[in-house]
Amino acid sequence: MPQSSQGMPKVPIFRDPKLRAIAYQVMLCAGLGVLAYAAVRNAAENLAHAKIASGFGFLNVVAGFDISQTLIEYSSQSSTFGRAFWVGLTNTLLVAGLGIIFATLLGTAIGIARLSKNFLVHRLASGYVELVRNVPLLLQLLFWYNAVLKALPDFANGFVLPGGLLLNNRGLYMPRPLGVDGWYVALVLVAAALLGYAFNTLAERSAGAWRSTAVRFPVTLLIVIGAPVAAFLAMGAPLEFEYPQAGRFNVSGGVEVLPELVALLFGLVIYTAAFIAEVVRAGLMSVSHGQTEAAQALGLRRVQTLRLIVIPQAMRVIIPPLTSQYLNLTKNSSLAVAIGYPDLVQIFTGTVLNITGQAIEVVVITMAVYLSFSLITSLVMNAYNARVAVVER
Amino acid sequence: MKRFAHALFAAAAAVMAAGLAHAATLDTVKQRGALNCGANGQLPGFGLPDAQGNWTGLDVDLCRAVAAAIFNDANKVKFVPLTAKDRFTALQTGDVDVLVRNTTWSLLRDTQLGLNATGVNYYDGQGFIIRKSAKVNSALELNDATICVQQGTTTELNLADYFRSNRMRLRSVTFASLDEAVRAYETDRCNAFTTDASGLYATRLKFARPDDHVVLPEIISKEPLGPFVRHGDDQWFDLVKWVHFAMLNAEELNVNKANVDEQMKSDNPEIRRLLGVEDNFGERLGLTKDWVFRIVKLVGNYGDVFDRNVGQGSPLKIARGLNALWTKGGIQYAPPIR
Fold this sequence. Notes:
Strand order of the largest sheet of chain A: 1-2-3-8
Structural class of chain A: mainly alpha
Oligomer: heterodimer
Largest sheet of chain A: 4 strands, antiparallel
Shape of chain A: globular
Structural class of chain B: alpha/beta
Distance between the termini of chain A: 54 Å
Strand content of chain A: 5-15%
Radius of gyration of chain A: 28 Å
């Protein structure tokens, strides 16, 4: 036998499993490539045939329509469709960001409440989760929008709240501090929070008097609250407010919070919190009871046990499903369209698509945006997950 | 998510629909056995299904007329309710054969959107409705008012233009559907609601107390409403266009639903050509000789349809105004059938 000297039987090339695997993959890729090419060509041909405009030139055309809530400068007179896109994007980010924060807080509270030994608390929390989880979000949004709108008095009979706040069915109006840029305020607040966190961490690790909670906690609080106040005083206390004023039809001036935003936020937060509560409960229950008993045996208090022993371990179970809840919340914010909140989908795949008629471009851009949102959220949460994951030695 | 999914579907369909749009629409419709008509679904007088699911309205009757001309049966129509926002993609992708949904004819829609307006079945203009209690007498007093408006309409653009050119501050709240916009106005989310004047009268009927609301006198735009078809099918474009013209010509020649059988015996050569007693114009459109007879017999002439849906025979009681025939002081004018 001639092959026997080689040690391996000679196989024809097309039967070689390795080559065959590669060949299949090449074929699959080529097939997908052809399909994609055909789709793009087909679309271009169909568009040209129907004389439908294509390309991204429309982004530089003046939009001409009004938007009810604009976080960045926008005027129907001079802003382009491209600018309208950014307005929609920032509106989506606003509602998604606020939604994630509030849903996490509420969800965590409910999740812990579900494990409470108090019958009423734990029953209420269970009832909340069961009720909210099983009603479609769209219905909840419509409920909140109509509930928020109808429960509030009309403009003429609106509430005047202490501190110059006005509340009616057109929205909530707050005094706007004059001469202070909102971005600086946010910057100072974030800086103070970081400073407080840094101090707390350092003090916790240090030896000596700083370490005791009795000292650490008040000092941290002082930094977080005191630093912005100090900055404010250092700037010469520019405390002047523009108060909202009732006009003929509407309240003018001040900071305006639209009922659409409130309704959307209520709906998203309450809905997502129910899911987050279940995630938190699962996480807490995943930590074996022995850990709690051991902590108590060491003399830790209930709160300390929860904070130092249970939650850090529960985080490993909580983070991955929590990430997908964040992604869901962001994507669900596109339901805004039902209640007139000008988010990305409403402005861009709504009005802009309708005026320009360029469905493919608009939808592709919108999908790319949601995809990027989701990937960035995943990235951040994965990084955090890697930090809290079990370190194997 | 549903609307987004719809847009997504539209985009996907535009990508995948190989040559679908190229087939002759008339053949497709005949083969299917029914006309797919994009209609409003929320607007009394123009397109609204009743509790039994029977559609009525001025726009609806144009679709019925097209079906009558093709099938000799005014009921072979499948009405597809569309929002202002979804309507063009539905037509572009072939979901509907014709769009008759109080849609304004504008240059952009006639070109960039890949559509053709076939004519004007209702001359309209945009106005405002407001509560009487607001004591507003003119749209020019609306500075700083909140206005509810339907999204994706020329209305939305005119509104911004009007406030801008009169140096007034606008606060608009836009909604995807007419019902949502109207509901928001009713719950006092907005001071005023704006749409085409015909739509204002129609929606006022839906209010719990119609007399508490007043339509302001200003008409701020030209809104020629008409049927739309896709680019690239001239035969279908002609057919839809001439169905409307036939209804106008029938009214002009006093051929109506009640007397059409009698008029078949008329000596008037124009009527004889119209009803196909002489010559054969229907065939040139891909239809039969008696196409106008079918339309008038089964649906009616333009005057019949106007009266029944929006005119004196309807709760709306809108005057003919611009929509009267040219012979009666209006601007509805059809080219001759010859």
